[in-house]
């Protein structure tokens, strides 16, 4: 399939008589702090020595395993992007698109020379808004497919609303448009509404940033306009649904006919809005947060037209700032990088150029990445691990004493039909029609977003592609897709120390195995369990089974809510519940699969550690991370995941961990057997 690998494979076959190399231990013993009892803090035991000596780079908000693996992917991306630039490929080819996009962002002399000119047409359009219909058209033209409430749990867009195109919750054979709340410049409603001193100071800094950006663009009365813009966003935030409520798929299943929008959400000129958005003929939408959509539509009519024009002007500048001359770029970084993330220095420009190229041309870059950097042998080995972990999960379903046979059958059918993609998709996007110019970074970014929007709209009315990927191969992450009953494991995460073909099985199952188990378990978390094997929102549980599940998940939520990463700042156990369920169930399934892989043989002792000890150590070291306080605070408010330190403590719910590390009552992480949460 990929000829580039034939020669190494043939050469390797010539050494068939040589003794195979012993597997490496796959964990870093010198990262441990053995002065810490595993039963008091397993994260510190596993990572404490590393943590004490780790320095976060000034251009990063954190450092750790994810950073290290991302750095490797970044260097590879740099090689292939620069290679595309040097190849001088023909116009319109993926390589040429990549090269022109990257080079346009890197040409700082041209960017400085053009100044604000690339934005003048948009700013002039905003200045010319004279009526509510004009405003609706301007808002509609800015609608983008930039949210995803289920697959990537991304609820953020600066635009008034966000669009997500995916399968219907009620009929997974149909593709429908979902409308979501938007309109904020800060990450979440809590930044506007929370009363604590940290959030108050952040609001003050944001108001100053808004004023400074307007002033830099030569817009008069910058301070007054900034005050009114932030006041408007405070009203928008008050209308928003919070993060936890936004993840309730039952509250999200609201089918609205387009003809009823003026009645259901009065205020916005919906006919003008939809026409400008290219959705005039769309018969229906799913309103994911109906109360928020009503509230935002009402604000369009109740707030002064000039305030909305100022809001549009600010967000136009804010989105474009990274592609504008240095003063705009640095001003934006001062708030979003320094204030929100605690990062003292911007990443090098070439790294930002790579990130933006990846964001807008992900499949073009990813296709080359997968061909060059993901060997068939790794794909086969990971697929074998997936098969083993799925078998282990099936056995765990069979062993559940509290679950009725009918519910077990439905659960096992979900496992049986789960579609697992490893490394890269089976088909790739065709970027035909996308114009990328080597001298227009602002236009390239805007045209790419418009192209993506049209690409998503084109799915409406077409057969569903159940094999569609929602991540690119060069992404260091993995995802569960509830509506497709599918998983994506991109090539870039299938790297050491998550996955190392040379490592002992215990380490691989403890690291990437737990991640695989985690994504499988998302099909059965508090959201995934609401969907059947076809991806339909359906109740396949008996009442008794559902009650048991909710009781167990409530105990897990309470367990995580007790964690306090910073003084006075607790993990939100309800907000992070789905991820915590997946961590516990995924780790248990990965451990079972590791034991199955031994085929009845005893695990070797390596480096003085038993197989189970290495398994749990690999898991905790996969969450090795050091994070800036500002970034940690933001994550606790906006992220559906618990912090890395707390995720490493998942082990306290697994019986085998207690035996492996001889954890005793009285140690801080010790839970009596009855208090250990077992769900799957």
Provide structural commentary.
With 680 residues, the protein is mainly α. Helix content is 52%, strand content 6%. Strands 2-3-5-4 form a 4-stranded mixed sheet. α7 (132-141) runs parallel beside α14 (270-276), α10 (222-239) packs antiparallel against α15 and α18 crosses α19 (362-373).
Relevant terms:
680 residues; mainly alpha; Neutral endopeptidase, domain 2; Collagenase (Catalytic Domain); 4-stranded mixed β-sheet; 3-stranded mixed β-sheet; 29 helices; 6% strand
Q: What multimeric state do the chains show?
A: single chain
Please state the average pLDDT score.
95
Output the CATH homologous superfamily of the domain at 131-324: Neutral endopeptidase , domain2
Number of helices: 29
Helix/strand layout:
Blueprint (H helix, E strand, L loop, with lengths): L5 H8 L28 H12 L8 E3 H23 L6 H13 L1 H7 L5 H8 L4 H10 L19 E7 L7 E7 L8 H4 L3 H20 L5 H18 L3 H4 L2 H4 L2 E3 L3 H4 L5 H7 L7 E4 L2 H13 L2 H16 L5 H16 L7 H12 L1 H12 L2 H24 L5 H13 L1 E5 L17 H17 L21 E3 L4 E5 L14 H18 L20 H19 L15 H21 L13 H12 L2 E3 L1 H10 L5 H5 L6 H7 L19
Parallel strand pairs: 3-5, 6-8
Antiparallel strand pairs: 1-9, 2-3, 4-5, 7-8
Helix pairs in contact: 2-26, 3-4, 3-19, 4-18, 6-16, 7-14, 9-10, 9-17, 10-15, 10-16, 18-19, 20-21, 20-23, 20-25, 23-25, 23-26
């Amino acid at each position: 399939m990929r000829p580039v690998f034939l020669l190494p494979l043939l050469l390797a076959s010539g050494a068939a008589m040589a003794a195979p190399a012993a597997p490496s231990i796959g964990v870093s013993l010198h990262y441990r702090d053995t002065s810490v009892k595993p039963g008091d803090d397993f994260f510190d035991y596993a990572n404490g020595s590393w943590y004490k000596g780790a320095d976060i780079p000034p251009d990063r908000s954190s450092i750790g395993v994810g950073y290290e693996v991302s750095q490797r992917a970044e260097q590879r991306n740099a090689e292939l992007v620069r290679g595309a630039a040097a190849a001088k490929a023909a116009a319109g080819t993926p390589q040429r698109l990549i090269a022109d996009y990257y080079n346009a962002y890197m040409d700082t002399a041209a960017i400085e020379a053009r100044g604000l000119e690339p934005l003048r047409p948009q700013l002039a359009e905003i200045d010319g808004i004279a009526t509510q219909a004009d405003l609706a058209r301007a808002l509609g033209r800015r609608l983008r497919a930039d949210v995803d409430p289920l697959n990537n749990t991304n609820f953020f867009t600066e635009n008034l609303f966000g669009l997500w195109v995916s399968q219907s919750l009620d009929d997974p054979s149909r593709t429908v448009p979902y409308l979501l709340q938007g309109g904020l410049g800060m990450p979440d409603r809590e930044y506007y509404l929370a009363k604590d001193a940290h959030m108050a100071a952040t609001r003050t800094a944001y108001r100053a940033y808004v004023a400074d950006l307007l002033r830099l663009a030569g817009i008069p009365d910058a301070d007054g306009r900034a005050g009114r813009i932030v006041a408007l966003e405070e009203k928008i935030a008050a209308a928003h649904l919070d993060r936890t409520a936004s993840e309730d798929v039952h509250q999200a299943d609201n089918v609205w006919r387009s003809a009823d929008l003026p009645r259901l959400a009065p205020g916005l000129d919906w006919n003008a809005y939809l026409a400008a958005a290219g959705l005039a003929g769309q018969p229906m939408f799913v309103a994911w947060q109906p109360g928020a959509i009503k509230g935002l539509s009402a604000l369009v009519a109740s707030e002064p037209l000039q305030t909305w024009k100022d809001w549009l002007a600010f967000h136009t500048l804010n989105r474009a700032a990274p592609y504008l001359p240095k003063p705009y770029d640095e001003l934006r970084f001062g708030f979003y990088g320094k204030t929100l993330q605690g990062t003292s220095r911007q990443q090098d420009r070439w790294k930002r150029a790579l990130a933006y190229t990846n964001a807008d041309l992900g499949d073009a870059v990813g296709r080359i990445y997968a061909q060059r950097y993901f060997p068939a042998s790794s794909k086969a080995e990971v697929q074998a691990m997936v098969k083993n972990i799925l078998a282990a999960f099936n056995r765990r379903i069979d062993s559940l004493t509290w679950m009725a046979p009918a519910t077990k059958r439905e659960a096992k059918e979900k496992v049986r039909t789960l579609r697992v993609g490893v490394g890269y998709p089976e088909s790739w996007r065709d970027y035909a029609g996308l114009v990328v110019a080597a001298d227009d970074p602002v236009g390239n970014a805007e045209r790419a977003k418009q192209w993506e929007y049209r690409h998503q709209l084109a799915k409406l009315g077409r057969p569903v592609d159940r094999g569609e990927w929602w991540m690119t191969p060069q992404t260091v992450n993995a995802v569960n897709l509830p509506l497709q009953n599918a998983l994506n494991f991109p090539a870039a995460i299938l790297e050491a120390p998550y996955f190392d073909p040379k490592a002992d099985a215990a380490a691989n199952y403890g690291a990437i195995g737990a991640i695989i188990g985690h994504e499988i378990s998302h099909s059965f978390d508090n959201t995934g369990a609401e969907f059947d094997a076809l991806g339909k929102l359906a109740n396949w549980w008996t009442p008794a089974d559902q009650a048991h599940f909710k009781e167990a998940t409530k105990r897990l939520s309470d367990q995580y809510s007790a964690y306090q990463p910073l003084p006075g700042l607790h993990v939100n156990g309800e907000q992070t519940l789905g991820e915590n369920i997946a961590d516990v169930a995924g780790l248990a399934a990965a451990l079972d699969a590791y034991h199955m892989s031994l085929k009845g043989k005893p695990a070797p002792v390596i480096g003085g550690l038993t197989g189970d000890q290495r398994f749990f150590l690999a898991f905790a070291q996969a969450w090795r991370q050091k994070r800036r306080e500002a970034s940690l605070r933001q994550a606790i408010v906006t992220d559906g995941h618990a912090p890395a330190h707390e995720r490493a403590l998942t082990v306290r719910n697994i019986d085998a961990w207690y035996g492996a590390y001889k954890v005793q009552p009285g140690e801080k992480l010790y839970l009596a057997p009855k208090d250990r949460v077992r769900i799957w």
